[in-house]
Amino acid sequence: MGQTVGGAVRAAQQRFQTAGVETAGLDAQVLLGYVLGVGRAWLIAHPEAPLTPDQAQAFERLVQRREARQPVAYLTGQREFYGLVFQVDERVLVPRPETELLVERAIGLVHEWLARYGQWPRVVDVGTGSGAIGVSLAVTVPELPTVNLVDVSPAALDVARANAERHGVAGRLRFWIGDLLAPLPAPVNLVLANLPYIEADVIPTLAPEVQQEPRLALDGGPDGLDPFRRLFTQVPTHVSPAGVLLLEIGAGQGRAVAELAQVLRPQAVSVHPDLAGLDRLVEVYLRE
Ligand SMILES: C[S@@+](CC[C@H](N)C(=O)[O-])C[C@H]1O[C@@H](n2cnc3c(N)ncnc32)[C@H](O)[C@@H]1O
Predict the structure, then answer these.
(1) Any residues with Cβ below 6 Å from ligand 1, and which?
(2) How many whole angstroms from 195 Cα to the centroid of ligand 1?
(3) Of 4, 119, 147, 202, which has the most beta carbons under 10 Å away?
(4) Residue 244 — left, alpha, or beta (φ > 0 → left; ψ -120 to 50 → alpha)?
């Protein structure tokens, strides 16, 4: 007899538990829902529904990949971020919910800039990956003429471009390959950055799923702060004198990054916690 929805979910859940997956039941439902093109509520309401052999085979392939601890988002090829569905795969970091805080603050900052200077700021999302930050900003603030997206990984930039097209903002975005701010042809006013900030030695101790994400998206060097140091050396030549930097940081890096930013002799530096009360954003105001 063929598999049913309920039986397939139960069997996958057990295999995921054995593999050490914490969200075993949820993942089993999400993956079967993806194969069948239905939501989790449908699966729960139809446990006796049969799977066709093709569906069972497609599900088995995904179950094996999840047992190998590949992130669910890579298996379904998508992740929701800031209310938008982003295409993701092995070329990019899976966007995290805590990064939505940066987008929210960026929306506030572009409006503050407009109110203060009577024009929209020139914005860059450095280390754009899937384009999560820059694309969300462009979608949410349709009046903003342009957002620059930079990544050192051409493969990541291809994903960002696909997401920009998917959300209808590709015409307002500019894509640059290179090191941090270096490829930008003119100074910007607002720098948004979720750069790699994990200490290199810590990466092998993280969940297997994280270790399957691009090393380039995670590795912040021996103390996790190298990308900030290097970014700050580029600021004087690539950011306007009154510019603002909005940087995502790791929990516990607030003080260190705020101290490193002193090299810019800024007017003000503040550290913002996330909803869990952990350091999450550093905001640097250069000068009037
Ligand atoms: C932590 S991921 C963030 C991705 C995306 N912004 C997000 O928030 O989901 C960091 C990104 O920075 C890129 N990156 C790393 N070093 C870089 C560099 N020197 N210049 C530009 N981008 C870099 C990586 O390729 C990766 O896409």
Answers:
(1) 92-93, 95, 99, 126-130, 132-133, 150-153, 156, 179-180, 194-196, 216-217
(2) 5
(3) 147
(4) beta
How far apart CA 205 and CA 207 sit, in angstroms, is 7
Collapse the DSSP code of 200 into the 3-class scheme (helix H, G, I; strand E, B; otherwise coil) and give the result: helix
pLDDT lower than 70: segments of the chain: 1, 288
**Burial group, residue 128, by CB count within 10 angstroms (0-12, 13-18, 19+):** buried
Strand pairing category for 147-151 and 173-177: parallel
**DSSP-assigned letter for residue 122:** P
Closest CA to 77 of 108, 65, 68, 67: 65
Answer whether 59's CB lies under 8 Å from 8's CB: yes
Whole-model pTM: value is 0.95
The label of the residue with tokens 């446990």 reads 47
Between CA 238 and CA 265 the distance in angstroms is 16
Q: What is the pLDDT of residues 43-64, one digit of tens each?
A: 999 999 999 999 999 999 999 9
Measured at the CA of 214, the angle between CA 151 and CA 219, to 5 degrees, comes to 80
Domains of the chain: 5-68 (1.10.8.10), 90-285 (3.40.50.150)
Write phi, then psi, for 273 (nearest 5 degrees).
-80, 160
Show the tokens assigned to 283: 């905001």
Q: Give how far the C-alpha of residue 200 lies from the chain's centroid of Cα atoms, to the nearest Å.
A: 19
Report the C-alpha gap between 61 and 29 in whole angstroms: 15
